Amino acid sequence: EAHQATLDEPFDCDGTYTYTTESGSKVVVNCTSPHGIVDPKGMLKYSCNGAVAHWALQTDSNLFRESLADFGFNTKWELPLPGVSKGNLKEVSTFSGRSKPTISFGQEVGVNALQLVTAATALANNGNLYTPYLIDKVVASDGTIEKRAPLVAKEGIISAETAQLVLAGMFEATELGGTATRSAVKGVEVASKTGTAQIIDPESGTYDSSAFLASTLSIFPADNPAYIIFIGVKNPKGATIWGANIASPAIASIIESMVSQGKIISTVSERVTLAGQPD
After folding, report:
1. Nearest CA-CA partner of 54 in 81, 92, 27, 73
2. Residue 227 DSSP class
3. Count of other CB atoms within 10 angstroms of residue 83
4. Given CA atoms 88, 93, 98, 102 in this order, what sign does their dihedral have?
5. Torsional sign, CA 254, 173, 31, 2
6. Residue 279, pLDDT score
7. Pairwise CA distance, residues 10 & 77, whole Å
8. Can you tell me whether residue 59 is helix, strand or coil?
9. Which among 56, 61, 107, 149 is least surrounded, fewest beta carbons within 10 Å?
10. 186-203: pLDDT as tens digits
11. What whole-number distance in Å separates Cα of residue 123 and Cα of residue 116?
12. Using an 8 Å Cβ cutoff, are 50 and 31 in contact?
């Protein structure tokens, strides 16, 4: 949207990305594996930390933060739910030499599930961010229906073209080689983004190397979005910690149930659930 990052120059991911801060220190960003040549859709498909960090560094810091704020990060949505908070989106004046790259792939920023799902409404609605609410309609005893109309919180926070580009990358993540193949459902176009985030240790104030949040966010049907699902699993136990392996299958199960209940119409196109790489 800022037209500052060189997105038209594919990024060559060899598994690590090293850059030098203004103070002269070197910072290394790691990926789960080498991804090869990556464009913006490929960055989403493979969850390439190096690519998104590289492009974030090319973007003006104030525009970078403003864009995140436009998506509702650092906003406390007024809902009658416990634990609703504004999260933590630091001011540009407190950015370090590694803040933009690490925020770009999910560190140095605190968000909650409500904020993530609300931000995703802009991807599902051609760039328009919608206000979250709990009750869609109330049916009185006499059959009178009081239905709530959707309310746009902010129009055009991104262009329709950018929203479609991101959705296309998330859709590719459910295809062969992507991180979110286990959220794919035959006959339904699902656009997904997986995540595996380290959790802050409240005592040390640093990331705990043994505590994780495994998550997946899915928007579907991708060609005409109607639903958004987010699942996050805190400190998963067992042989895997990846959102791709834990949260994605749970989302696929929910979508399959919706198909069986007639809430989503499955098409005749054949989709195959494949084993994906971790994220």
Report:
1. 27
2. E
3. 7
4. positive
5. negative
6. 66
7. 37
8. coil
9. 149
10. 999 999 999 988 888 888
11. 11
12. yes
CB-neighbour burial class of residue 93 (10 A; exposed 0-12, middle 13-18, buried 19+): exposed
Strand partners, 27: 19
Report how far residue 38's alpha carbon sits from residue 50's, in angstroms, rounded to the nearest whole number.
Answer: 10
Query: Which pair of structure tokens corresponds to residue 33?
Result: 């594996």
Quick one: how far is CA 120 from the chain centroid? 7
Q: Which two structure tokens, joined as six digits, stand for 184?
A: 């794919």
Q: Which of 178, 177, 214, 183 is nearest to 198 (CA)?
A: 214
Local structure of residue 110 (DSSP, 8 states): B
Q: 43-69 burial by CB neighbour count: b if 16+ within 10 A, else e?
A: bbbbbbbbbbbbbbbebeeeebbeebe
- Nearest-angstrom CA–CA distance, 95 and 85: 22
Backbone angles phi, psi at 140, to 5 degrees: -75, 170
Question: What are the CA-CA distances from residue 73 to residues 41, 142, 223 (Å)?
Answer: 23, 41, 26
Instruction: Evaluate whether 136 touches 147 at the Cβ level (below 8 Å).
Output: yes
Neighbouring residues of 237: CB distance < 8 A, sequence distance ≥ 6? none
Terminal Cα distance for the chain, rounded: 26
Please report which helix (H) or strand (E) contains residue 160, including its range: helix 160-172
> Which residues have C-beta within 8 Å of that of residue 154, sequence separation ≥ 6?
70, 128, 129
Question: In this structure, what token pair is assigned to residue 241?
Answer: 């910690």
Its pTM stands at: 0.90
The whole-angstrom separation of Cα 22 and Cα 95 is: 12
